[in-house]
Specification:
The chain is an alpha/beta fold. The chain has a single domain, classed as NAD(P)-binding Rossmann-like Domain (Rossmann fold). The chain is about 55% helix and about 15% strand. It has a 7-stranded parallel β-sheet, sandwiched between helices. Strands 7-8 form a two-stranded parallel sheet. Helix 1 links the parallel strand 1 and strand 2. Keywords: Oxidoreductase. InterPro entries: KR_dom (IPR057326), NAD(P)-bd_dom_sf (IPR036291), Sc_DH/Rdtase_CS (IPR020904), SDR_fam (IPR002347).
């Protein structure tokens, strides 16, 4: 996909990867970029910083009616949606001990929000013979987020759902990509480090933390090639191969890393 004259919607668009995507899409010549976020003021500020092609929208991605309203309003305003980026996400920094409310929130934001987006945009995209869905899934969706059980489980589910969409609708013109970065310099990572979360410490110790703008560069390249897996950290592909070929050895290596970080 070339972004010139396209209509794009980005959830979680007010900061981090989302705002970097919004800026880059506008720079690539998008006709309109809808910056959707739970934080209405932050969405307004992000859109204002981009310019007249950007439009802000307040939306809770865990509320299907709000997602449907976002899609309907965008289609009324611009006539269509060419690219929908389901980018909102949450981490927990915990394991099996977390209460059901934390697991439910992770499930609703990291998985069901993608389902709600697909339900809302698919009818229009399929009727027009094409469209693009970009799901921000994280390298945790193909590997493991050490120290964060809900994040690991839900990001694996997000990759699985994106792959299902790609297999089911590709022949009807739908393109799907799963964006799977590893460490990115975002508020999510900063908050995790401040809280002492093990997963954030693993990412920081890797020395491979990218800026959101670097992730946006990888997205532009991945969309141009219509690749299913967009890996801003190319080494993730090698990790995934090692994990598939020698799961016991891969797990042993992760356990060693955890022991070292725990002192």
């Amino acid at each position: 996909m070339n972004l010139t004259d396209r209509i794009a919607v980005i959830t979680g668009g007010a900061g981090g990867i989302g705002s970097a995507l919004a800026r880059r899409f506008a720079a690539e010549g998008a006709a309109a970029v809808v910056v959707a976020d739970l934080d209405a003021d932050a969405a307004d500020a992000a859109a204002a910083g981009i310019g007249p092609v950007a439009h802000a929208a307040a939306v809770d991605v865990t509320d299907e009616e709000q997602v449907r309203a976002l899609v309907a309003d965008t289609e009324r305003r611009y006539g269509r949606i060419d690219l929908f980026c389901a980018n909102a996400g949450v981490a927990t920094g915990g394991g099996v001990e977390l209460p059901d409310a934390d697991w439910d929130r992770a499930w609703r934001v990291n998985v069901l929000a993608h389902v709600y987006a697909a339900r809302a945009v698919l009818p229009g995209m399929l009727a027009r013979g094409g469209g693009y869905l970009l799901a921000t899934c994280s390298a945790a969706g193909v590997l493991t987020a050490v120290g964060d059980a809900p994040y690991t489980a839900t990001k694996h589910a997000a990759v699985g759902f994106a792959e299902w969409l790609a297999v089911t609708y590709r022949d009807q013109g739908l393109r799907v990509s799963a964006l799977c970065p590893q460490g990115v310099d975002t508020p999510m990572l900063a908050d995790g480090l401040a809280a002492g979360h093990l997963g954030a410490r693993v990412i920081a110790a890797s020395g491979a933390v990218l800026s959101p703008d670097q992730v946006a560069d990888a997205v532009i390249a991945g969309l141009a090639e219509e690749r299913f897996l967009i890996l801003p950290h190319p080494e993730v592909a090698g990790y995934a191969r090692r994990r598939a070929e020698d799961p016991d050895g891969w797990q042993a290596g992760l356990r060693k890393l955890v022991r070292r970080l725990r002192g």
